[in-house]
Amino acid sequence: MSELKATPKAIAGPSNFLDERLGGANFLKRNLRKIFPDHWSFLLGEIALYSFVILLLTGTFLTLWFKPSMMEVAYDGSYAPLKGVMMSEAYASSLEISFDVRGGLLMRQMHHWAALLFVAGMTVHMLRVFFTGAYRKPREINWIIGVLLLTLALAEGLTGYSLPDDLLSGAGLRITEGVAISLPLVGTYITFFLFGGEYPGEDVISRFYSLHILLIPGILLALVTAHMVLMWVQKHTQMPGKGRTNQNVVGAPFYPAFMAKAGAYFLFTLGVISGLATFTQINPIWLFGPYTPADISAGSQPDWYMGFLEGSLRLMPPWEINLFGTANAGTLPLSVIIPALVPMGIIMTGLALYPFLERWVTGDNREHHIADRPRNNPHRTSIGIAAMTFYGVLWLLGANDEIAANFHVSLNHTTYAGRVLVFVGPALAYLITYRICLGLQRSDQAIVSHGVESGVIKRLPHGEFIEVHTPPSEDIEAHMRGKEPVPMLPVDEDASGIPPKGMRGPLGKLRGRMSRAYGGEKIPLDDGHGHEHEDEHAAIGSGGSDDRSITH
Fold first, then answer.
1. What is the rounded distance in angstroms from the CA atom of residue 228 to the CA atom of residue 125?
2. Predicted local distance difference test score (pLDDT) of residue 125
3. Could you write out the three-class secondary structure of 130-195?
4. What is the pLDDT of residue 164?
5. Least buried of 151, 225, 408, 428, by fewest C-beta within 10 Å?
């Protein structure tokens, strides 16, 4: 038995060597046994992390053959339909990777699918953090890092799908140039910096290449590292449940439980991306042909994460402002500036400021290590769903031409409908979500007060049939009782009719009204025992007082 428990020499020798020189044994022992809470939703962020790792690996492979040059060459590769066609070296090398490099097409498609999954993983991870309130103190800095990561991921995607210099990416590049040059004062300078002169210039591919493989990935890698370090120090929030408080952590150790789960999940993510790249074609650049500024293809669509910007451009009326009443003095094309800056600004700025705005409204400066159930903060959940609806309408209308063509409706009608829905949709989503949250809270209240339906039908002495309710399990009840009232500022006036300090003046009164509406307990949980329903019916049936209100 002692031999079985002894550390193998192959591990003990190198470990002792390193420990004697680096002194890392205590550090590793302490951190490998670090406890992490466990919940399926915590794995959403790992999708983004593992996709990022796959992006780095496949991107390194692609850089070995890609030529970031706009110099024109005559194509002489394996793809016969384009033989002899003049194209940029960037496009020719992309075709070479696709058809002549062993495994090249697989790597290209894995890289593209991993990029889509990277942004999608970050998006759903941020939604999970937002709806559970996991951005609250002490995790505000990590939330800001997450917002920066998402913003940089969009820029990384933009520079990435422009590199092949095919007709589809060129259409996106043309929109990028139009947005950049429309910016007041700095637009022409930004455009000349990117393109090296008049559009399309000769330098944009090489400059986007530097941004795509060096600058933006370097910043992303630094931010991901900072994000992981802070997460390691602060740990995940944990879902409410039995024995879970703000002062403890209920979960499994990093080694072996979390490491085994993370390793399996990385392989699963790799398998999904590899399967998509193998069986599902994406971005077939050989069908689009090389980019020329005079050509455009019908039904051009960007990758999904840029669709909301495309939709905002399509919905915006053709407004412009001619300074001093003349176009010669300078024109502000609002039809481009507003779609390019306002939706993105609303979403990203709102995300970055929300933790601080919520703290200002509620006055809540406590540390939070227990996550909220979304239903228990109905206003926050409603705001999140309204923002998703705003994004979704813009994303959907980015394909209004495809919608009109496939459903045989007027393109103008889809545009007009989108202009209405982009305002009405979020408002309706807010109201509906708020009512759903209150309904779910009432459902929790009923379960706690009366128990859960058992499926057993009981006949009372007076002949009435009822279903027997049983108390919920301890875990379910603890999960529901983890609910806390949303904090609220003291807004009541004192005996002299003077509002509390900070609640005076127009801004203070506004803050007080917002706090009263946002905070407080909407549907309090009752202290039930699971048999109250039957007891009340029995009391009525046996001649007891029947003027009590019975809650079903």
1. 14
2. 95
3. HHCCCCCCCCHHHHHHHHHHHHHHHHHHHHHHHCCCEHHHHHHHHHHHHHHHHCCCCHHHHHHHHH
4. 93
5. 408
Say if residue 31's pLDDT is above 80.
no
Whose CA is closest to 135, among 358, 387, 360?
Answer: 358
More confident residue, 470 or 222: 222
Each residue's pLDDT tens digit, 258-279: 888 889 999 999 999 999 999 9
Torsion, Cα of 277, 278, 282, 284 (10° steps): 130
- Nearest CA to 96 out of 68, 73, 77, 110 is that of 77
| Percent with pLDDT over 70 in the chain | 91
Whole-angstrom distance, CA of residue 51 vs CA of residue 56: 9
Sign of CA pseudo-dihedral 387, 392, 393, 397: positive
87: three-class secondary structure by DSSP: strand
Q: Nearest Cα to 345, choosing from 314, 308, 317, 393?
A: 308
Q: What is the pLDDT of residues 402-444, one digit of tens each?
A: 899 999 999 999 999 999 999 999 999 999 999 999 999 999 9
pLDDT value for 2: 45
Strand extents, DSSP E, 382-497: 452-459, 465-470
Average pLDDT estimate for 242-264:
85
CA 89 to chain centroid: 36
Instruction: Give, in degrees to the nearest 5, the angle at Cα 151 between 149 and 155.
Output: 110
Q: Are 549 and 536 in contact (CB under 8 A)?
A: no
Mean pLDDT value of segment 153-157: 94
Scored b (16 or more CB within 10 A) or e, 132-163 reads bbbbbeebeebbbbbbbbbebbbebbbbbbbb
* Dist. CA 295–CA 171, nearest whole Å: 9
User: pTM to 2 decimals?
Assistant: 0.88
Residue 473 CA: distances (Å) to CA of 456, 529, 530: 17, 12, 11
* H or E, element range at 321: strand 321-322
Of 151 and 529, more confident: 151
What is the token pair recorded at 214? 């060096």
Q: Which residues make Cβ contacts (< 8 Å) with residue 51, sequence separation at least 6?
A: 114, 115, 117, 118, 121, 269, 273
